[in-house]
């Protein structure tokens, strides 16, 4: 039996042209402005189409044929502008290059952006763990930038004394045991 090997790319969609309010008292911290939510018009199908068009632009019909059968957006969160993309292990660099060269989301969103590949993983579990870790860290950064006002971190994350990167003594974080990535 042949096992199909995939790579999972965890990406962040960043919007560098955030609107800066004129009143500094109501201004959002820079961290929050750069990591703003995506439009609800951004869907997994639209993101897949954007990636395919980018691969075709950079690598032509060869690139389109190589990623056509394996390219799938497994997870997309417009609230955090985060996505997990699955692609065949042999061709993940084509998708990575297309994402790196992306400067604008397609219509109907049509907003300038920067796509940052945060992690390349052999399992979706590791990509999910990294997404959770980065979300917790961004909540902490935004809270520190805002001066520590508002709800406590415990109330936001639904736990007591939860810090980014903390695990218990057994090496288990969030009920998921750590597992080495496959090459």
List the defining traits of the structure above:
183 residues; alpha+beta; Alpha-Beta Plaits; four-stranded antiparallel sheet; two-stranded antiparallel ribbon; 36% helix; 19% strand; globular; disordered C terminus; RNA-binding protein pop5; hydrolase; EC 3.1.26.5
Task: Give the neighbour order of strands across the main sheet.
Answer: 2-3-1-4
Q: Give the strand tally.
A: 6
| Overall body shape | globular
Overall helicity = 25-40%
Q: What's the number of helices?
A: 5
Strand content: 15-25%
Please tell me how large the radius of gyration is: 18 Å
Low-confidence regions = 19-26, 160-183
Order of H and E elements: EHHEEHEHHEE
CATH superfamily: Ribonuclease P, Pop5 subunit
CATH class: Alpha Beta
Structural class: alpha+beta
**CATH architecture call:** 2-Layer Sandwich
Q: In the residues, how many domains can be counted?
A: 1
Quick structural overview:
With 183 residues, the chain is an alpha+beta fold. The protein contains five helices and six strands.
Describe this structure in words.
There is one protein chain. The chain is an alpha+beta fold and 183 residues long. The chain has a single domain (6-150), classed as Ribonuclease P, Pop5 subunit (Alpha-Beta Plaits). It is 36% helix and 19% strand. It contains five helices and six strands; from the N terminus they run E-H-H-E-E-H-E-H-H-E-E. It has helices at residues 30-34, 44-68, 92-100, 124-145, 153-157, and strands at 6-14, 72-77, 82-88, 114-121, 172-173, 176-177. The strands form two sheets. A four-stranded antiparallel beta sheet has the order 2-3-1-4, sandwiched between helices. A two-stranded antiparallel ribbon has the order 5-6. Helix 2 packs across helix 3.
